[in-house]
Amino acid sequence: MIEISSLDQKILQALQQGLPLASRPYEEIGRQVGASEAEVIARLEQLLEQGVIRRLGIVTKHRQLGYTSNAMVVWDIPDDLEPEMGKRFSEFDFVTLCYRRKRYRPKWPYNLFCMIHGQDRETVLQQVAHLRKTCGLEQVAYDVLFSGQCFKQRGAHYFKTA
Questions:
Q1: Number of helices and strands (H, E) in the chain?
Q2: Quick one: pLDDT at residue 161?
Q3: Which residues contact 34 (CB under 8 A, 6 or more apart)?
Q4: 49-53, 99-103, 132-136: which range is least confident on average?
Q5: For residues 147 and 69, what is the distance between their CA atoms, to the nearest angstrom?
Q6: Is 90 exceeded by the pLDDT of residue 19?
Q7: Residue-number span of the structural domain to which 96 is assigned
Q8: Which of 46-50, 76-80, 109-113 has the weakest average pLDDT?
Q9: Is 153 inside any structural domain?
Q10: Domains identified in the chain, total number
């Protein structure tokens, strides 16, 4: 098991609030947690290397950018193809999220999920058709679940804020 130091926890807690809007955001985080900019960067590199965090990214409020047609596409992928299809879906720029979930047959046969954000429904549906054709999934059951209303959107939070 990987040990997470109290400094690591403080850095991660600060990061879950989002990077400060500053010319040197890691220096600002360092001020918040009592560390130097170099130490914050070194700790993040170590946490990435250990796999505690996988990446640093942004959470974009896609609706505010004009991407108002957002769909979770759910697929009933044969179990033996699931890992391969997950990797293939992830290679498409328009797929922003892809993961596996347990099926709950007979009511819920779907096991592979991917999110597609688009500016209009037709574009999203064309992208789904492209996925089906390119990946040879014309005979696979799927459904396109368009979002209705957004109630909350943010990055993950793992630590309570002070």
A1: 5, 4
A2: 67
A3: 7, 10
A4: 49-53
A5: 7
A6: no
A7: 62-146
A8: 46-50
A9: no
A10: 2
Let me know: does 107 contact 101? Beta carbons within 8 Å.
no
Question: Per-residue pLDDT averaged across 6-13, rounded?
Answer: 94
Amino acid at 110: Y
Q: What length is written for the chain?
A: 162
Two tokens at 61?
Answer: 């409020």
HSE at residue 47, side-chain half, CA atoms within 13 A, is 21
Q: Report yes or no: 72 and 31 within 8 Å, Cβ to Cβ.
A: no
pTM score:
0.70
Tokens of 102: 């347990």
* Burial label, 93 (beta-carbon count in 10 A; 0-12, 13-18, 19+): exposed
Report the CATH number that the domain containing residue 12 is assigned in CATH. 1.10.10
CB-CB neighbours of 150 under 10 Å: 11
Helix or strand run (H / E) with residue 122: helix 121-134
